[in-house]
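User: Can you recover a sequence for this backbone? Please restate the input before giving your answer.

Assistant: Of course. Working from this structure:
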């Protein structure tokens, strides 16, 4: 609920002006998928490629955000929803600043991902589904989380004891069990080029 004494303050510098200065169309690339699917790996590689071409970016990573902004939130369904709500608002500010923001979060619920999409104007939400089978993610288990979850040491673990709702119609679908990181990055950059995000 918004306090009635708070009034929105309009900026004298617009998103359009900030974007023109950076020669890019700002957007959120929202990487979603199971733990171990490759979200952070691919998001980092995409950002590095964009940076090499002079683009202005920022990467929001799930673990990093939970160490600061969202450090008091648990992994209950309610707190996961609040986690994504906050990230959506932060990402919206980056878009207003003219930035290409990459967000790498499990974000298991379609409703919450859609809520972020509806925060952003100009079709600037790009859902990137890292579509990696559970068994592949569990074999990787880069952080040892699946092993802990199987032992009951982690509750509400997405894909095992908590649901993951796969995107219904993502803009980009990456299958890391069949594509290399380089091929995945190529596909995402190609999409951004074709849709006009890399020029203004």
């Amino acid at each position: 609920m918004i306090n009635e004494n708070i009034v929105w303050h309009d900026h004298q510098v617009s998103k359009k002006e900030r974007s023109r200065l950076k020669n890019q169309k700002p957007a959120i690339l929202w990487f979603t998928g199971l733990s171990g699917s490759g979200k952070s790996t691919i998001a980092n590689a995409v950002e590095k490629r964009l940076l090499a071409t002079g683009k202005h970016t920022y990467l929001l990573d799930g673990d990093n955000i939970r160490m600061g902004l969202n450090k008091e939130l648990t992994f209950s369904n309610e707190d996961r929803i609040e986690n994504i709500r906050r990230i959506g608002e932060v990402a919206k500010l980056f878009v207003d600043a003219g930035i290409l923001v990459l967000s790498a979060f499990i974000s298991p619920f379609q409703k919450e991902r859609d809520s972020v999409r509806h925060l952003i104007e100009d079709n600037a939400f790009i859902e990137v589904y890292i579509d990696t089978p559970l068994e592949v993610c569990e074999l990787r288990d880069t952080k040892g989380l699946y092993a802990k979850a199987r032992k009951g040491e982690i509750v509400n673990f997405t894909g095992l004891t908590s649901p993951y709702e796969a995107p219904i119609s993502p803009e980009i679908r990456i299958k890391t069990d069949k594509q290399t990181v380089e091929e995945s990055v190529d596909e995402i950059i190609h999409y951004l080029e074709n849709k006009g995000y890399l020029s203004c």
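That completes the design. The first helix runs from residue 15 to 22.
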